[in-house]
Amino acid sequence: MNRAIKDHSWELFIGGMVLLAAVWATSLSPYYLNAEQLLFSSRNLVFTGVMGLGLSLVILTGEMDLSLPSILAVCTVLLSKASAAGLPLPVALAGIVLVALALGAINGFLVAALRLPALAVTLGTMGAYRGLAFIIGSEVGYTGFDGRYKWLGEAKIGASSIPVMLIPFALAVLAFMVIMHFSTFGRRCFAIGNNASAASYSGISVVRTKLGAYMIAALMAALGAWVFIGQFGSARGDNANGVILGIITAVVLGGVDINGGRGTILGVLLSTIFLWTLRNGMGLANIAGPIQQLIIGALLVTGVLASNFMGGRIEFAGPRKKAMTGPSAP
Amino acid sequence: MGDKGGATLARRFSNAVSRNTLRLRVFSVLFSLVALTIVFALTTPNFLNFQNLKVIAFNSALLTIVACAEALVVITRNLDVSVGSIIGLAGFVAAKFAAANPGSGALIVIVAVSIGLLLGLVNGLAVAYGKVPSIVATLGTLAIFRGVTYIVGSGIEVPSGNLPRWMIHGADATLLGMPLVVLLAVAVALILAFLGRGLPILRRVYAVGSNPGAAVFYGLRANRVVLFAFASCGALVGLAAFLYISRVGTITVNLGRDWEMTALAAVVLGGVSTTGGSGSFIGVLFGALILSTIDNGLVLARAPEFWRMFIQGVAIVGAIALDSGIERRIQAIFKHGKG
User: Fold this and answer.
1) Quick check: helix, strand or coil at residue B164?
2) What is the pLDDT of residue A303?
3) What are the C-alpha distances in Å from B86 to residues A8, A85, A299, A311?
4) pLDDT (average), residues B285-289
5) Which residues of A touch B269 (CB under 8 A)?
6) Smallest Cα–Cα separation from B317: which of A55, A302, A125, A316?
7) Largest CB tally within 10 Å, which of A9, A169, B69, B90?
């Protein structure tokens, strides 16, 4: 029991922060604690949330993917073209899945097979894919989506006010829990993130595993695109522009080590909920966007600082890194 | 005997290659710039005249300074994604100060640079002594600095008409036919490149980025070196912020937004290794020039603006692949030389 608490102390901490944030939001605005309001605003965590799940897997292997929101934009624009051409939804979805997998595979190939630095490479593909989205869709936004395309992003379950999109989100969370913590692939990701060459010597194909992680992450961007077009009813090349920094914040605050090898999906889920709660409360209290960002940024830095200084007491969960030989990198 | 001679020759060759590694990289950057220029010169009629080349140089000047600052941090195997927000805070406060005290002269420069220095120190302390991974720390300060700018701004903007006249005129001033800003940017890159060969602290910046563990074993205080890199990055960005506010029409709290990505792109295009330890400031200068050449050429060719993103992105990936290809080639030669 003690062991379980110690291993998951970061998740417990973030969970506690969610409650604190909710209490704070309630005191900030009388409109916060209302089922309708909460369910309506829960829509805001889904499309970034699914990309956060995908990014966690990539970061777990010690890499980075800045291009996910750009892949989302390519997919929304493609969906708009499919909708305009009158294609049935399953065909359109199959199309964006293939495209997303291909774009993810390009990232994975450049990073894993050619061993190029991930941050720089995906900075490049972030621009290239964003440009591609504009090239496909021109600068004009598309709003004439077929109702069936928008269903996932705008419909509610039966007569309740629960957004349908929470179902794929919940399924994605469950799927990622299985992939990361209960599958061979997930164990390989942890192993590679902890020590890529040791993993390689023990027979794990580093290239194939990283390629897989990038493709799964891109797949989540495609799911995000499907949600996005329903939620906002529009598609344009600049969709989801600039959300990547917020997604990285969620992943890091969720306890995933930015250098790879440690982290849990539960942590990422909790930090996603935490950030959403904060934003929701602050939004209702009419706190301006930049100030919201300031508070979240300060939490990110102090959170990591606190966990560094407290050392043993609040630890990031997941398998520990082996003690490094020699002094650690600055 | 002959075998020994062969080994010596191989060693001499590998030494020559290692000595010229950086030059080789800068050369590949320069080559891309020339190739790009030729393509645009052939496809767009007005590209290759002096006036337009001056525009390109002018547009790349500020980016050169910010990218050189970013390169300092990248060479230590860290990253600063907050430079856009440093431009915002340093620039906005300096503009507000200048508008309130029109007769303050060079004090405005000092205000901008010292705010930049202060913000750089904050980043450096968090990374070097707080042990926060640099991308996480500066991601946080990206939001924090922008938020503070917003609070300082309290909803107002500073029109450039409120700035002292000398700032506005200074932005357009030329020396020997070249804009002062361009000369300043080139000077920053050249000085850093020159000092990088001899100045101990800059040598340490390279050493720490190249192998942090070994640097510590050799007695280098890696923490201080990283702090120095972040602080001087901040100060340089503060200088760029000062130059920036004298050029834009209205100084808003959004000043410098998204500059971190462009600066990183210039750094990467310039052949600075994102895994630290290598890179030349002359390369960064060329990297910034490449970005503004692409911008300018596409505008003249009347290509839609979004092609820029695509081409820039592909160019970044291409540059990284090229760099890593060169690096691996050199390593292969080393291995061969040793065996």
Assistant:
1) coil
2) 79
3) 37, 46, 19, 31
4) 93
5) none
6) A125
7) B90
* Three-class DSSP category at B175: strand
Q: What is the pLDDT of residues B1-24, one digit of tens each?
A: 445 566 677 667 666 666 666 666
The verdict on ipTM greater than 0.90 is: no
Contact B292, B58 (CB under 8 A): no
Measure A157 CA to nearest chain B CA, in Å: 36
Distance CA B133, CA B127 (A): 6
Locate A12 and state its tokens.
């417990």
pTM over 0.90: no
CA distance B233 to A328: 23
Alpha helices (runs of H) in B101-179, residue ranges in sequence order: 107-124, 134-153, 165-172
Bridge partner residues of B174 (DSSP)? B179
- DSSP letter (8 states) at residue B118: H
The amino acid sitting at B265 is A
Tell me the residues of chain B between 98 and 157 that have a Cβ less than 8 Å away from chain A: 126-128, 130-133, 135-137, 139-144, 146-151
Return the structure tokens found at B220.
């280098």
pLDDT band for position A102 (50/70/90)? Answer: very high
Whether A134 sits inside 8 A of B309 (CB atoms) is yes
Query: Which residues of chain A have a CB within 8 Å of the CB of B265?
Result: 123-124, 127
Are A106 and A44 in contact by the 8 Å Cβ rule? The answer is: no
231-290 in B: which are within 8 Å (CB) of A? 253, 258, 261, 264-265, 268, 273-275
